[in-house]
Amino acid sequence: xxxxxxxxxxxxxxxxxxxxxxxxxxxxxxxxxxxxxxxxxxxxxxxxxxxxxxxxxxxxxxxxxxxxxxxxxxxxxxxxxxxxxxxxxxxxxxxxxxxxxxxxxxxxxxxxxxxxxxxxxxxxxxxxxxxxxxxxxxxxxxxxxxxxxxxxx
Length: 153
Fold this sequence. Notes:
This protein is mainly alpha-helical. The protein has one domain (9-151). The chain is built from 6 helices and 2 strands. The protein has helices spanning 9-40, 65-89, 93-97, 112-121, 127-130, 140-145, and strands spanning 100-104, 147-151. It has a two-stranded antiparallel ribbon. Helix 1 crosses helix 2 (65-89).
């Protein structure tokens, strides 16, 4: 069996950029569809803010619980995207393009719990600073989730 080589920081960052474009698009479209359905079902009182239905797509009052729900989708959708792909396919679409795969430290598929830990700990990208002091040059999200990203052919 060949030796496993960790994915470089450059390839990791390129895969992240690729995945962020996908996640942004998905989040935007899904949120827009849900928001439109909410407005069409009259779940928001648009008369109280003096807005017509044609103007309302971007104007749900900020204090509305529905607005809070719609904003939370911008975290929930990326969470589902990354956890699903890491668990079911061992890599996201961006990782596939840049030939990176995620594995558990015992060289088996990543579990749902490991994926969730990995996503939460990677949320703000600060884990990559950890790579500079880590003896194996692994980011914090790899350490905490007991996973690693490797190069694949």
